[in-house]
Design brief:
The protein is an all-alpha fold. Helix content is 81%, strand content 0%. The chain is built from 13 helices and no strands. The chain is globular. The two termini are 31 Å apart.
Amino acid sequence: MTPLLLLEFIALAALWGASFLFMRLGAAEFGPVPTAGLRVGIAALCLLPVFLKAPVWADFRARWRAIFVVGLLNSGLPFLLFSFAVLHIPTGISAILNATVPLTGALVAWLWLKDRPGGSRVLGLVIGFVGVTLLVLGKSGVDAQGMVSAGGQAMSLVAMGACLLATLCYGIAASFTKRYLTGVHPLASATGSQMGAALALVLPMVWLWPAQPVSPGAWTAVLALAVLCTSIAYILYFHLIERAGPAKALTVTFLIPVFALVYGAVFLGEVVTAWMVGCGLVIVAGTALSTGLVKLRALERRAG
């Protein structure tokens, strides 16, 4: 990877890591639904200039229905679920659980597309889900400030469940894309999916719009979330896929929790514990194996 691509890689991880911070700041005043709705709506507007190019527009017109489905599964629902979750658990925990996306993606592909993983990847799935279980068991009684609270345990469990449901949506969207959108221009999928998610969320967003005036800080957070962490991040991501390949681009997943933990500690005063870091490392190890980025030769030979 060239120095320029490495810089883009780090920038992408920093942007996606910051999304959890911005979601928390925005959802605290807007609420989860308006935060998610504004994010996808503004991002779609920002991506319009590249969307209107002839090859991108042609691909969208041919597959718009499937692209809108992907928008609901890959943006609308996950963004809503994470916007809810970060109000009840530390943003770092949300980011660590988000790192399980490749695990759920591999599991869905196995069950739906019959993409049977080898021995290393099966071990990775097991290790990754063990890491998630340990994280949930260890943090279920901690609220968003890292303090144990009387009602915090139930809401923490619900919030972590929302994060895992969001990763399942991502996994389903990945297999759906592979099955129905192979060959479609990536920016057609990216922009069209934001449009589809915006259409799905516009009425709930209007219905649940906050009754009280929203501060400039919350508006700034949502704008940053949409422009920086969604539209610009998508462009960086697809450029990395084109220049470095999907396998290397996927490894950005490993860095996102690092940035999210730092942002949460610095800007929100969240507590970063050794247990969180340890579980995160277990999840990352499982992800590396489950995606095939790391292979154990003995297991691969035995599976073959």
